[in-house]
Design goal:
- By secondary structure, the chain is an alpha/beta fold.
- It has one domain: Rossmann fold (3-Layer(aba) Sandwich), CATH 3.40.50.150.
- Strands 7-6-5-8-9-11-10-12 form an eight-stranded mixed sheet, sandwiched between helices.
- Strand 5, helix 2 and strand 6 form a beta-alpha-beta unit.
C-alpha cells in the first residue's frame, strides 16, 4: 500500500508524521515498535482501525444504566478515543492531557478532533498537570505513548498514586499497554502495589500484543453484556492472574530510578 506523507514535523517530544494510505489516515511517532498512534478510515470515520481504541471503549462495561459523568484521557494522539466516547456519551464531560501542543493542532487539522463545552484539552506533562485537578473521574484512560512505549514517569508509583486519588470509588483506570515490552511486568507490579489485584485485561483481536488493562479501586462487577447500548463489539475483560513473576518484578518509583 502506497503511503503519502501529508505532514511531518520534529518537536521537542516526537518525530511526527501524518500519512495517508487510502482510505486510512494515520498519525505516527518516530519509527519504533509503538509508532502508530491513531488511525481513521476516511470512508467510515467511526470505524476502529487499531485494536487499542476499541479496547478502550470496554471501560463502559463497568457502568450500568447510569453512564460515566466525567472521563479523563491522558494522551491525545489524533483524538479518536475521546471523540468516540463523546459520540456515545452525549452528556459526559471529557478532559484530555497532552504534552505536545503540536499534537493538538494535528488532531484538529487532520483527524477531525474538536474541543467544545464538553471536551477540553489541557496542554502539559500529565505528571504535573494532575496536581492541579480537583474533580474526580469515573474513567481515567492512560494512552500516553512515545515511539517506543509509555514514558517511565507515567508508569511510576508516584503517578499511579495521583491517578488513584482522582478516581472515583467505583471508577476504572484503563491503560493501553504492550504485553511484550520489557517494562510490562514491572508496570503491572507497580499498579498492583497501588491498586491491589483488581486488574482485568483484554487483548486485541487482530494484534495479540496489544493489551488493555482495566484497574479499579474495588472489585466492581462488570455490566451485563445484554445491557450494552453502544455500537461496538463487546468482549468480557478477563481477570489478570498476579503471577510470581509479576510479584517479583521491579517496582517503578521515581525515588528509586533517579
Amino acid at each position: 500500500m502506497e503511503s503519502n506523507i501529508l505532514y511531518q514535523i520534529k518537536t521537542p517530544y516526537n518525530d511526527i508524521r501524518v500519512i495517508e494510505e487510502l482510505p486510512f489516515r494515520k498519525l505516527l511517532f518516530g519509527h519504533g515498535m509503538c509508532q502508530e498512534q491513531t488511525g481513521i478510515n476516511l470512508e467510515c470515520p467511526h470505524q476502529h482501525v487499531f485494536d487499542f481504541s476499541l479496547l478502550a471503549m470496554h471501560s463502559l462495561l463497568y457502568f450500568g444504566q447510569i453512564p460515566p459523568s466525567r472521563i479523563l484521557v491522558i494522551g491525545l494522539g489524533g483524538g479518536f478515543i475521546p471523540m468516540q466516547m463523546s459520540h456515545y456519551l452525549c452528556d459526559t464531560k471529557i478532559d484530555i492531557i497532552e504534552i505536545d501542543p503540536e499534537v493538538v493542532n494535528i488532531a484538529k487539522e487532520y483527524f477531525f478532533f474538536k474541543e467544545n463545552d464538553r471536551i477540553k484539552v489541557h496542554v502539559g506533562d500529565a505528571f504535573s498537570v494532575l496536581d492541579g485537578f480537583k474533580d474526580r473521574y469515573d474513567i481515567i484512560i492512560v494512552d500516553a505513548f512515545t515511539t517506543n512505549y509509555i514514558p517511565y514517569h507515567l508508569m511510576s508509583k508516584e503517578f499511579y498514586n495521583k491517578v488513584f486519588g482522582l478516581l472515583k470509588v467505583n471508577g476504572v483506570m484503563t491503560i493501553n499497554t504492550c504485553n511484550v515490552h520489557p517494562s510490562y511486568l514491572s508496570q503491572i507490579k507497580t499498579i498492583y502495589d497501588v491498586f491491589g489485584d483488581n486488574i482485568g485485561c483484554l487483548n486485541g483481536a487482530s494484534n495479540e500484543i496489544s493489551t488493555m488493562l482495566f484497574v479499579t479501586k474495588s472489585n466492581i462487577e462488570l455490566m451485563k453484556i445484554e445491557h450494552i447500548k453502544c455500537h461496538f463489539f463487546v468482549m468480557n475483560p478477563t481477570k489478570l492472574i498476579i503471577t510470581d513473576e509479576i510479584k517479583n518484578s521491579k517496582i517503578f518509583s521515581l525515588n528509586s530510578m533517579f
